[in-house]
Automatic annotation (TrEMBL):
It comes from the Eukaryota. Pfam families: DinB_2 (PF12867), FGE-sulfatase (PF03781). Residues 232-355 form the Sulfatase-modifying factor enzyme-like domain. The keyword Nucleotide-binding does not apply. This is Sulfatase-modifying factor enzyme domain-containing protein. Pathway: Amino-acid biosynthesis; ergothioneine biosynthesis.
Amino acid sequence: MDADLDTPPLMDGNIPPLAEWDALWAAWDAVTLAMVPPEMLHDRPIDLRHKCLFYIGHIPTFLDMLLSKAVGGAPTEPAWFWEIFERGIDPHVDDPDHCHNHSVVPTADADWPTLTAVLAFRDGVRARLRALYDALARNKQALTRNVARTLVMTFEHEAFHVETLLYMLIQKAGCGPTRAPPGITRPPWEALAVQWAAAPKPADAKVHVPAGTVVLGHMDSEAEDFVVAEDGGRMDVHAKPGHTFGWDNESPPRAVHVRAFTAEWRCVTNAEFAEYWRAASPAAVPSAAPLPATHPLATPASWVVDADGAIHVRTLFGPVPLATAAHWPALASADALAAYAASRGGRLPDEAELRRFLDLYDVGYDGGANAGMRNWHPVPGTMGLAAHGGRGANGGVWEWTRTPFAGHAGLVPTALFTGYSADFFDGKHSVAVRPTLPCVCAFLICESFILLLQLGASYATLPRLGRRTLRNFYQHNYPYPWIGARVVYDD
């Protein structure tokens, strides 16, 4: 392709240029081919997810399927990859046999395709995408809203999976086969720990957030990608310059009034959670019987506790002592962090409250936040300093809310990625908080598959996913993703 044809006409807004795809593919290949050794391809670092090889095949399959939907054409060979790599699993944490619609995969390792075959398929799909960009640049393919949405959705899908695979691999880092990030020097942990301990802290740990109105979401309905012609046929609508495409659950915009509340400047840290956990959890006693992994007082999946009871925090370079990661945000399930918040007399924020707080005080990626792999680990938060008007960053984590993931008025379910949002809300689930319990404070009591929203970004979230309206969602008791929380209080 000619250099001047890399960016087709109208390719602005948040449509990724081909150069960004190249950078994303480099990141994906580094994670899947350099950090996953051959002997780990058929491992499942997390029981609730597929084996590593599945994701190497899933990413190009998803792209291939959506390209066929958007512009037509047969599957890239071998076409049967669509059958096993179409969609991953997200089973109920409490009942893994209960899962949404997903691909049926081979049960025996020998029945899976080889890595060589999967990579050849990947290269064919990437060539197909390059051909589409070339056709767009030469005006042989119209840049319609549907084509533009496909490019955004497939790019962001792959970017999400970079993070998903990394939080899977971290479970085997330093004490298993996961390799460290390629070309990245192991951080000088002891020197950094001294620096982090000496960093300035807010004069007051809390801030009063005044009442106000927050607009959640933006105008981007997939229903507007097409119009119906007089003969009943479907007509594609051309993309408008500067439009921002998103996922179905981001649209349409909704104005929400937020009452005044008080928030902790910084997310719950590992040191704070460790103090609470040691006092409340029988899991903190080395001789005690282990709690179920999803119990709010179980050892967080982001930690490793040795036989002497010493806490280490997982990193992609291997576990580090708690003292090193003391000021990092604690990564744990919503249930665990809700219990901690209740022990402080607070709670988790709802979506609108957290959005209002972040709108006021979060500086985002362009302001220096720890996202986009600036570091390959969390860092201490920086919010709350008077010198910066309180503005700063949370240290490189998503943040839990107490808001269930559900539909809203005007939402049009996506036809490109069928079931992306709709498979995960049905109006049958609700959230209730049990009154304070001895030693445990409060548990978040939910249906087994209730999903809660998260906002923000982690240190491994690509900057393109830092869109203000983007929402993430996980099960309330899922302990693995890189999500922290800040405590808020009713005024």
